[in-house]
Amino acid sequence: MTPSGKTVDAALAQLRQALSTLENAVDGRFERERAHSDIEGEVRRVHADRSRLAQELDQAEFRANRLEEVNREVSRRLVTAMETIRAVLDR
Description:
mainly alpha; 1 helix; 97% helix; 0% strand; DUF4164
């Protein structure tokens, strides 16, 4: 082979190596983009879950407060009923 043939072969080998490196870089970039997209989707799901859980918590707190109010009213009525029964029995 002539010296210029060796130079062309070396240049082609370098070009192949550069193309291979570029393909690997592009593949890596696509993989990172997919991973980023997956992460964004997961973040959206977490936010949706958080929103749903916050709403459920608000509803549970409302029910708990309502039950406390009803409990106080029942307790008040029981005390009144017991006092009435004592008053009747004491006659």
